[in-house]
Amino acid sequence: MQLTPAGAQLAMQPLNQRISKATQLLNPVAPIPITNYVPGNCYEVVAFTRFLLGANITPNQLATVVSQGWAPLFMNAPGGAQWHGGPIAAGSTVIFSYPNGNPFHAAIAVGAFGTTTVLRSTNQPLLGGYWGANTDCNIDIVNGIMRPVPQNQATIFQFSNNPGDRCTIFVSGL
Fold it and tell me: Could you tell me the residue ranges of all domains in the chain?
């Protein structure tokens, strides 16, 4: 992952200072831009934010894992589960995958406010894709942008008018 000079400096700070900055990044009203620290794609901004929050991510992984290389780490981490709707805790990693299991996007939960979960990410406007603009998971995804489609035991979400545009949503344990 490529960090900005400010991101590299922040990564070397003690955990309490990293958590404080992550809290500012996840502020639901006035977040600081993630691009101040990591200019990367959705997986990298989520991994960096999780690192700041104290997740089981090493400095070596920050330096060597890039782009979609984070996807299997998120998907295979203990404690993850398919999402079927409902609140997602602040700081949780959310992975969007095609029904065949191939991930295509990552976001981070800003917080659960009652029955609403707000997501934030980069590079995917429909799925929390602008760091400064929140996506309401339960309204925008379940009732608006995405519609649940019953299929087998998983909840499959339709994310456009194209019948082939379907995904599953996984909340990672990492």
Answer: 5-171
Spatial separation of the C-alpha atoms in residues 121 and 21, rounded to whole Å: 16
Q: What is the pLDDT of residues 114-160, one digit of tens each?
A: 666 778 887 765 555 556 665 555 544 544 445 444 444 456 665 66
Q: Distance of alpha carbon 31 from its chain centroid, rounded?
A: 15
Structure confidence at residue 47 as a pLDDT band (50, 70, 90): very high
Which pTM value belongs to this model?
0.84
Residue 2 to residue 24: CA distance in whole angstroms: 21
| Per-residue pLDDT at 61 exceeds 80 | yes
Per-residue b or e along 2-33, where b marks 16 or more CB atoms closer than 10 Å to that residue's CB = ebeeebeebbeeeeeebeebbeebbeeeebee
Identity of residue 12: M
- Cα dihedral 86, 69, 173, 82 sign: positive
Residue type, 126: L
Please report how the helices 42-52 and 15-25 are oriented relative to each other, as an axis angle in degrees rounded to 10: 130
